[in-house]
UniProtKB/TrEMBL annotation:
Protein name, entry field: Nucleoside-diphosphate-sugar epimerase
Residue ranges annotated for the NAD-dependent epimerase/dehydratase domain, each copy included: 3-202
Organism: Aspergillus ellipticus CBS 707.79
Stored SUPFAM superfamilies: NAD(P)-binding Rossmann-fold domains
Domain of life: Eukaryota
Amino acid sequence: MQILITGAAGFIGQLLAKELLNNPSYTVTLTDINEPPIPPGVTYPQNARTVTADLLKGGADAAVTPSLDAVYAFHGIMSSGSEANFDLGMRVNVDATRNLLEALRRTCPGVRVIYSSSQAVYGLPLPEVVDDTVIPTPQSSYGAEKIICETLINEYTRRGFITAFILRFPTISVRPGLPTAAASSFLSGMIREPLDGKECVIPVEVRSFKSWLCSPKTLVRNLIHTLSLPVDAPPSHIRQINVPGICVTVQEMMNALARVAGEDKLALLQEKEDPALKPILDSWPTRFDNSQAISLGFIRDSSFEQVVRDYQADLTQ
């Protein structure tokens, strides 16, 4: 199976590429605005090629080939970055996606596209539990840009130009590496940084603040599962799937950190409310009915403590 990953230099792109390149069944093209690395230590590095391409400047044509079986669209500017620079967010998140869709339509019509959307498409008011009937009303530029792309992708699928699945991700935690421009970055940082002996600022002061989370390991399993979903699993014009997550409070995350790594790690956490981030964070849903996704074979994490234990184990490998 020949697969293209856009935004392949990013965390999720690298994580997925590593999994795919440990399986001889996959040939993977990695593309990003800067040359994406082939993940180190993979079993089949010869099955990868890298393409440096700017999707805003005709780069999609260099990455897209007629033999593609599937495309993972991960490129984009994250939430607080989009809010800080509206024009850049619209160009990278919307215009680049439209360019990619047009290249796929011309070169490999009908190809399977797996698009990374977000729970940020939702906004207040929200029911206690969000199900598939809740209409998205985003309260951030990032969420609005994702909804624009979702609408385009639904239309391209309805017309038969592509065969897409739109995955609305929970917040991914625990992400390795450096903090990002995402408003939710602290939800990884409050575990990652103390485990590295560093401080992390939590931009909310209410420990009952809830988040809808998914581990990197579970996300990758769900991404690969999407390759085998029946084409008609969702209707042709409603391709959105809310990826399963778990609801966790800041206090529960702190408790998990203490149980796994020791109470002393909590001293590295500072709680200081960020008035710029608060409206964005408060607009996100905190609990979903994932019946559709579970019925399609998607999975969820068992507990956040296990997520922290898995992350800690990965640090020692």
